[in-house]
From TrEMBL:
It comes from the Bacteria. Its EC number is 2.6.1.-. It holds the Pfam family Aminotran_1_2. This is Aminotransferase.
Length: 400
């Protein structure tokens, strides 16, 4: 009898964690490493949020809470969805977890059976297919490559839906591409979904606040309110308030689904950390003006990185609308050899040779389901990014 479960056997380890780990080992050996492989804002959590956490500790708000979050946070979440997304919801329509990832995990675990299908646009955030598989269901990959700006086309969605489709997962702005759907693009997808009432929509809006060039963020339940009854709109403070370590994600969705998620969370992690919840109340209700400044910094970094990667390197990089990633193609450089003598057959060869020869850590596109590309996270200092771009340019120039 095997000790480890069959369910775990269906899951692959995280490639983003693996490359970051390799970069850390090289750094520990004294190598000069620039890690652009992780997806984490490099800003500190705002002071008012940190103060709220300290107050919560001092006031003894350190005990178990409701499984799905303190009333104050659920009120703050509902107010956020009404204010920013035009969703007609109250606190009773909202739910809080230990990070956005746990929202996704709870929702899929609470609903999927073997044989169910989940449409996952490609490239995808690495955890979606793995969580689907862990639940015993099947990811159905729908290609959304550079030819459509890394966005799912309505006809591709239509072709991916079968009678067994339980969910479509959307992620806007996207990790790994930074692509963000406009309201009219979402409307096109909504029209398809209106024809398939058995399909639920999980929209991962965790990068909502990071949309550039003055463009407006849109989410599908706002664009098509008739879909709200079968849409789980997920968000969190990890990226919006540089709170990745605090572990607070939240959502709004149909009440029967939320009740099932409460049942599951009640038998697994129970409530998210009480102190983090009080910090998140302040994050959502407090001033948001710092975001304009962060957006400006990220947008300037994006522009510098995109220009540098497209500067006669052989790489092809679209300008993404949001998040803090670019997802260039290295297709034209594959089949050639690096200056260090590595034959670059795949995108993984490309990123490993780049790491070995220049110390820049990126993640290969295959990890996100789309070979021939790589992901670069520009959530790093300007100095690091400038140096990384210089090294990538040098690496590409040496390829023959
Ligand atoms: N969704 C996407 C697309 C992400 O990139 C991430 C984090 O990298 C998450 C969800 C997870 O967020 P959290 O830290 O709130 O669990």
């Amino acid at each position: 009898m095997a000790f480890l479960s069959d369910a775990l056997g269906r899951v692959a380890p995280s490639a983003t964690v693996a490359i970051s780990q390799k970069a850390r080992v090289m750094a520990a050996e004294g190598k000069d490493i620039i890690a652009l492989s992780a997806g984490e804002p490099d800003f500190n959590t705002p002071e008012n949020v940190r103060d709220a956490a300290k107050r919560a500790m001092d006031e003894g708000k350190t005990r178990y809470t409701n499984v799905d979050g303190i009333a104050e946070l659920k009120e703050a979440v509902a107010a956020k969805f009404r204010r920013d997304n035009g969703l007609d919801v109250t606190a009773a329509d909202c739910f809080v977890s230990s990070g956005g990832k746990q929202i996704i995990f709870n929702a899929l675990m609470a609903t999927l059976n073997p044989g169910d299908e989940v449409v996952v646009p490609v490239p995808y955030w690495v955890s979606y297919p793995e969580i689907v598989r862990l639940c015993g269901a099947e990811p159905v990959f729908a290609v959304a490559d550079a030819s459509t700006g890394f966005k799912l086309a309505p006809e591709t969605l239509e072709a991916a839906i079968t009678p067994r489709t339980k969910w479509l997962i959307l992620n806007t702005p996207s990790n790994p591409t930074g692509a963000a759907y406009t309201a009219s693009e979402l409307k096109g997808l909504a029209e398809v979904l209106m024809r398939h009432p058995h399909v639920h929509i999980l929209t991962d809006d965790i990068y909502e606040v990071l949309v550039y060039d003055g463009k407006e963020f849109a989410t599908i339940a706002q664009v098509e309110p008739r879909l709200q009854a079968r849409t789980l709109t997920m968000n969190g403070v990890s990226k919006s308030h540089a709170m990745t370590g605090w572990r607070i994600g939240y959502c709004t969705g149909p009440r029967p689904l939320l009740a099932a998620m409460v049942k599951l969370q009640g038998q697994s992690t129970s409530n998210p950390t009480s102190i983090s919840q009080w910090a998140a109340v302040e994050a959502l209700n407090g001033p948001q003006d710092f975001l304009a400044e962060w957006r400006e910094v990220f947008q300037a970094r994006r522009d510098m990185v995109v220009a540098g990667l497209n500067a006669n390197t052989g790489l092809d990089c679209l300008t993404p609308e949001g998040a803090f990633y670019v997802f260039p193609s290295c297709q034209r450089l594959l089949g050639k050899t690096s200056a260090g003598g590595t034959k670059l057959v795949t995108d993984e060869d490309f990123v490993l040779a780049l790491l070995e020869e220049t110390g820049v850590a990126l993640v290969h596109g295959t990890a996100f389901g789309l070979p021939g590309h790589f992901r670069l996270s520009y959530a790093a200092s300007n100095a690091e990014l400038e140096e990384a771009v210089r090294r990538i340019q040098g690496f590409c120039a040496g390829i023959a």
